[in-house]
Design brief:
By secondary structure, the protein is mainly α. Helices cover about 75% and strands about 0% of the residues. The longest helix is centred in the last third of the chain and has 40 residues, at about 235-275. It starts with a helix and ends with a helix.
């Protein structure tokens, strides 16, 4: 009999597969742009209709997922690239001043709402896709660093870490060899939630016109620019909106099921080793 976690994993995989395939492989099959038709029309060779400037909606959908997915993945990776060393160093250092220098500036950033931080930066300069990824990563670093620090501090308080120090192990081996491995499950759980939040933030920023051109082939931009014709030609809004929701929901379900499965397997292996 299939377990509930297997069902959640299959459901999450099914939900996330469609937007991921469209995002990664869509541009390959999009073909050349055809002649533009009237705005917000159905039929006439456009099976999802046309958008606000008469472009084929299906072709825009095929091109619009890659910017959202790649920007979100890049922003998440960049956030952890900064948060991991900062969090580990602040948790394992024995110098209070260094810890304060590392964490207090991040606390100031944490007090500013993420979207507000991005919008404030966008008033100073016009970020492209790379700039948007950097801004979203910056908005996520403070929270990620605090989580890494908390998880690392708990692992660093164990007797094993003190034993490693007494044996003369290097800081890098202690930090990444033991403490880092001890917090992998915590980081994996946070990564699933954070990726969902980053996807939402990237889509919202693009919806507000930050980091993308007003007529760009982007799912969030499609929702924004085509909403005026929602009741005339709904597919130009509904399809990209559903794909964004499917991407975030499916990602959450996948991580939740994978972590639940990993957590249940651990005790069984221990129990088996204890009672042969």
């Amino acid at each position: 009999m299939r377990s509930p976690r297997t069902g959640r994993f299959a459901l999450g995989l099914t939900i996330v597969a469609v937007p991921l395939v469209l995002a990664l492989l869509g541009p390959v099959f999009a073909g050349e742009p055809g002649a533009r038709a009237a705005s917000f029309t159905l039929g006439e060779g456009h099976w999802l209709g046309t958008d606000f400037v008469g472009r084929d909606v299906w072709r825009q959908v095929l091109h619009g997922g890659r910017p959202v997915v790649l920007t979100a993945l890049a922003a998440t990776a960049l956030a952890y690239l900064v948060a991991l060393p900062v969090g580990l160093l602040s948790a394992l250092t024995r110098h209070r001043l260094l810890e304060e220098l590392l964490m207090r500036p991040l606390d100031v950033l944490l007090a500013v709402p993420s979207l507000l931080l991005i919008l404030l930066a966008a008033t100073v300069f016009s970020p492209g896709a790379v700039g948007l990824a950097l801004l979203v990563a910056l908005a996520n670093v403070p929270d990620a660093a605090r989580l890494v620090r908390a998880a690392a501090a708990e692992a660093a308080a164990r007797p094993a870490v003190e034993a490693l120090r007494m044996q003369g192990e290097t800081w890098w081996r202690t930090a990444f060899g033991y403490v880092g491995r001890s917090m992998l499950r915590t980081l994996a759980a946070d990564a699933g939630t954070r990726l969902t939040g980053v996807l939402y933030l990237v889509a919202t920023a693009a919806f507000l016109g930050v980091g993308v051109a007003p007529d760009a082939a982007d799912w969030a931009v499609m929702v924004d620019r085509n909403r005026t014709g929602l009741f005339v030609q709904p597919w130009a809004v509904v399809v990209p909106a559903v794909l964004i929701v499917a991407l975030t929901t499916g990602t959450n379900l996948l991580f939740d099921a994978a972590l639940d499965q990993g957590g249940r397997r651990g005790p069984r292996r221990t129990e088996k080793g204890t009672h042969p």
